[in-house]
Fold these 3 entries.
Entry 1:
Amino acid sequence: GAVVSQHPSRVICKSGTSVKIECRSLDFQATTMFWYRQFPKQSLMLMATSNEGSKATYEQGVEKDKFLINHASLTLSTLTVTSAHPEDSSFYICSARVPGTSTDTQYFGPGTRLTVL
Amino acid sequence: AQKVTQAQTEISVVEKEDVTLDCVYETRDTTYYLFWYKQPPSGELVFLIRRNSFDEQNEISGRYSWNFQKSTSSFNFTITASQVVDSAVYFCALRGSYNTDKLIFGTGTRLQVFP
C-alpha cells in the first residue's frame, strides 16, 4: 500500500515552454500532497504543500506564479513549471501523506527529472 | 529553528561490514517525529522508519537498527552485514509540531558498499 506515482519520469524541454508533472496516489486518497525539489547531490527542499480543493501553500522563496500547483482530486496533484529556464532543471519529487494515521508518514513518488535546454 | 545534520557526506564500506549513519537534530518542540529514507540511484525515496519523540526504544528490522537518544538529540541508523544493494543515499528527516506538515531533511549520506 501507500504507492505514489509520478509522470513523466523524465522530461526535456526548451527554454520558455511550460511543463506539467503529475503526482498520483494509487491506493489511497491524499488530501495533502507535497512537492519537493532536489538539486544534484543535495537534499530535498520543500517547495509547497498541496491541499485538495484549496490553494497550495508555498514555502518562502518559491514563486507561486512560476510553479503552479493544482490539487483537483483526492488522488491527483499537478505541478506546472511555467516558462521554464535552464535554472529550473532539477529533480522534482512529490509525496503524499497517508490519511487516517497518526504516523504522519509521507510516501514519495519516484521523481521527475526536468532538463531545460 | 529546526535542523537536521548528517555530518557524514559519503561512506564506503566493503560488503558484510557494519556501518552506522549519524543523524543529529535540533528542535524546540516537545513532540516531534524522526524519519529515515533511502534514495537508491533510481531516485525514489523509500520510507524506512518513523520514530516518535516520546518513544526512545531502539528498533531492529532485519539488518537495520536505529538508536534514538534524546539526551544527545541523535537518531543513528546502523546496517549490519552490509550488502551491495544497500548502496544509496540515506536521508534523516524531522517533523515538528502537529501544526506543520513540513519535513526537514538532512543533507544525506551517500553509502557505497563494494563487493
Entry 2:
Amino acid sequence: QVQLQESGPGLVKPSETLSLTCAVSGASITSSWWSWVRQPPGEGLEWIGETSHRGTTHYNPSLKSRLSISVDKTNNQFSLKLTSVTAADTAVYKCVRNGVGGHAFDYWGQGALVTVSS
Amino acid sequence: QSALTQPASVSGSPGQSITISCTGTSSDVGAYSYVSWYQQHPGKAPKLMIYDVTYRPSGVSNRFSGSKSGNTASLTISGLQAEDEADYYCSSYTSIYTYVFGTGTKVTVL
C-alpha cells in the first residue's frame, strides 16, 4: 500500500519561503514521477509541479519563478520550496504519485494546510 | 495555462445518468489521451476514477466511464447513487510537459 505523508510548518510569514517534504512509503521514489498539488480553502485543485527520481522537474508556469522541487532518494522523499509567499499561497498542499499510465495521480497524501500570515 | 472548463454543478436523481464535461484546448485535452478524472468528498483526498480518457483503476465502479471528442472530455456516471455526491475534477497533460486541472463540478444527488 503506497502512502504519502506531508510535513512542514503550518504557518509562514508573507515574503518568506514555504517548505514541505513528502515521505513516501510502500513504493520506491525511483519507480515514478511525483507531484505537488494545492487547493486553497473552498477552491479547486492546482497542479504545482513534478519531479522524477533523477531530479528532472516540470513546473506550473505561473509558479515557476518562485518554485523548486527536489528529490531525496536516500530517504525516499521529495520536497517543495516556494519563495516570496503571499496570502494567495494559503492552501492545503498535497503530494501525489504520477502512477497508473504515467499521467494520472493515483496516490495522494492527506494534505498539509499552510497559512500565509504575519 | 488556464484551468480546464467544467460546469459548476450537475444534479440527478438516484438511478439516473449524468455527464460532466471538461473543455480544454488543442494544447492539452485535444493533444493527448491523458485525461483523468478525480472524485473528492469533503475533507478527503481526491480519488482517481478514470485515467487515459477511458480506463478505470482497479476497484472503481463500472458505473463511471470516460470519453473524449476533440478538445472536450466527459465523465458519465450511470445509475447515480447517493455516495456519488461529491466534487469532480478533470485533469490533462499539456504540450509544455505540465498538467492542468478543471475548475471542478459539484455533483448533487436529488
Entry 3:
Amino acid sequence: DAGVIQSPRHEVTEMGQEVTLRCKPISGHDYLFWYRQTMMRGLELLIYFNNNVPIDDSGMPEDRFSAKMPNASFSTLKIQPSEPRDSAVYFCASSLSGINIQYFGAGTRLSVL
Amino acid sequence: AQSVTQPDIHITVSEGASLELRCNYSYGATPYLFWYVQSPGQGLQLLLKYFSGDTLVQGIKGFEAEFKRSQSSFNLRKPSVHWSDAAEYFCAVGARAGTASKLTFGTGTRLQVTL
C-alpha cells in the first residue's frame, strides 16, 4: 500500500485566502484523523472521522476550519479565511478499527503570509 | 484528561552510546502507549506500542520501551545509537475512542547524534 497520501506537500498563501488540504487514507482503514503541528503547541488532534462520519471535532480551533470526508478514500481540511497564525504542518493519519495504530502521511506545510 | 510529559526537549549522544528517552503519562485507565519518530520533513513513523501483556516491548530499528505502571512511565531505550537515529521522538497515550485510539502526544524530544 502507498500509505497515507497528503497533498499538497507545501502551500504558501496570503492572509484571507481559502486553503484546502487533502488526504487519502490507507485503503480499508475506517478511521481518519487530522492533526496540526506547531512549535508552540506541538501535535494537536483537530478532528477525526469513523466511516466517513465526523466523531469529535472539539480540537478544531474555530469556525474558519472545516473538514469533510465525502467517501472512504478522501478527506479535506479547509481553512477560510486563512490567517498567519494558521501556519503549521498539518498531518492526516488513518487507522483500522480495533487495531489502534495510526499511520501518518508526510504532512502539508502551510505558510500564510 | 490524558496527558504526556517528555521532560527532555533536546538530547545529544555520541554514536555507539546508549540512549534513554523519558516519557511520563497521566491517564485514568490502562493506557495504550506509543513511541513515534519523525525525521525532518517527514511524517510520524511508529517505533513501538504497548497495549497489554509483557511490559518490555520491542520495536523497529533496535528500539525498546518499558511500561512501568507504578511510575506512569514508558521510557524508550536503545543500547547503541546510530547517526541515522537523529530525529524527533514523540511519546503518545491513546484513549479508547470507539474501536480506535485518540492519541495525545508529548512535546517531543529532539535527538542529536555526534560522530
